[in-house]
Each structure stands twice: as structure tokens, then as C-alpha cells.
């Protein structure tokens, strides 16, 4: 895990060199993901990688569980470790739903102050690092959660469901 973390930072250093001199439109966002690693990006390792990426100029750090094995407790422990170094409003979440925990992980993240999340229509996708892992959390499920919490999104559930049923869309093909 330490080698993978070091490689992630080195790769980003190559991309991020000179970011201070780039125009504001060239902002960089970085996902900190499990990528099939059997242990979580939790504790000091994950927090250190996130801090280093932040220090290199990332405007946003997305904490990801691309194999879908995270739980609300693990997600909150990761956020607790990272917010020591990075403002919580600069964090996002990217949770796959392999074990049905993605919506619970989003709720746990919301409770910690995270308010930005990735999702995909009809939960499409997968994880190339973990064969059999499901796609990202379904946008419909996230919207249902947020609506139920009284959080205004400006997204129409009817239009979102229609997008997933649109002929020719990847969601319609299945």
C-alpha cells in the first residue's frame, strides 16, 4: 500500500508541476481511491497522501471506494484523518455500491460535512481494478436520499429516470 501511495503522489507531481503558474481554468482534482487494494485508505497513510496532493495544488480531493467495500464507519474515519490537513468543504466522495453501502457512505459523509459526490445514471460503470465490483452509486439513489433529507439539488427525479431509460443509452441497453 505504501508503494502504491508513493506512486500515486509521484505520478501527480509530474502532472502538477507548475500548477501555480497555470490559469484558473486548469484546476486539478484528484481522486484518492482504494483501486482494489485489500486495505482501506484510512488513517495516516490516506491522510498523508491527501495532504501531499492538496499541497501540490489540487482544488478538490475525492475520497473514493472504487471496489465498493467501504462502510460508513470506515468512511468517517478516513474523513476524520483527512480533515486534519484539508478543509472538509474541499473533499468529495466517490462510492461504488458492490455491497449496498454507497448511499449509507454518502449519508455518513454528509454527517461529516462533505457535500460533493460522484454518481452515475442507473449506477453504470464498474471498476477495472476489481472484477465484479459494481458501478458508482446510482444518481437516482443519491437524489432520493438528498430529497428525503430536504437538501435542494435542482435535479429532477423524473428527468433523471428518463435519462436512464433513453433508447440508445448504456442504461437502456441492459
What does this protein look like?
It is a single chain. This protein has helices at 2-16, 43-55, 72-82, 102-112, 139-148, 157-165, 170-173; strands at 29-33, 60-65, 91-95, 116-117. By secondary structure, it is of the alpha/beta class. A four-stranded parallel sheet has the order 1-2-3-4, covered by helices on one side. α2 (43-55) links the parallel β1 (29-33) and β2. Residues 35-39 have low confidence and may be disordered.
**Gap between N and C termini:** 36 Å
Overall, the morphology is globular
Rounded average pLDDT: 78
- The strands making up the biggest β-sheet line up spatially as 1-2-3-4
Helix-strand sequence: HEHEHEHEHHH
Low-confidence stretches: 35-39
Based on the model shown, name its key terms.
single chain, 174 residues, alpha/beta, 4 strands, 42% helix, globular
Please specify the SSE layout and strand pairing.
Elements: H1 2-16, E1 29-33, H2 43-55, E2 60-65, H3 72-82, E3 91-95, H4 102-112, E4 116-117, H5 139-148, H6 157-165, H7 170-173
Parallel strand pairs: 1-2, 2-3, 3-4
Can you summarize this structure?
The protein is 42% helix and 10% strand. With 174 residues, it is α/β, with parallel strands linked by helices.
Amino acid at each position: 500500500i505504501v508503494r502504491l501511495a508513493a506512486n500515486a503522489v509521484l505520478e501527480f507531481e509530474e502532472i502538477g508541476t507548475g500548477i501555480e503558474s497555470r490559469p484558473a481554468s486548469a484546476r486539478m482534482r484528484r481522486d484518492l481511491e482504494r483501486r482494489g487494494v485489500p486495505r482501506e485508505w484510512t488513517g495516516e497513510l490516506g491522510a498523508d497522501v491527501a495532504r501531499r496532493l492538496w499541497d501540490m495544488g489540487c482544488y478538490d480531493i475525492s475520497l473514493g471506494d472504487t471496489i465498493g467495500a467501504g462502510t460508513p464507519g470506515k468512511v468517517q474515519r478516513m474523513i476524520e484523518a483527512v480533515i486534519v490537513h484539508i478543509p472538509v468543504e474541499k473533499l468529495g466522495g466517490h462510492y461504488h455500491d458492490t455491497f449496498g453501502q454507497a448511499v449509507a457512505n454518502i449519508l455518513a459523509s454528509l454527517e461529516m460535512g462533505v457535500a460533493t459526490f460522484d454518481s452515475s445514471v442507473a449506477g453504470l460503470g464498474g471498476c477495472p481494478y476489481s472484477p465484479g465490483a459494481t458501478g458508482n452509486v446510482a444518481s437516482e439513489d443519491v437524489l432520493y436520499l438528498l430529497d428525503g433529507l430536504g437538501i435542494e439539488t435542482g435535479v429532477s427525479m423524473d428527468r433523471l429516470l428518463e435519462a436512464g431509460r433513453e433508447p440508445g443509452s448504456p442504461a437502456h441497453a441492459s
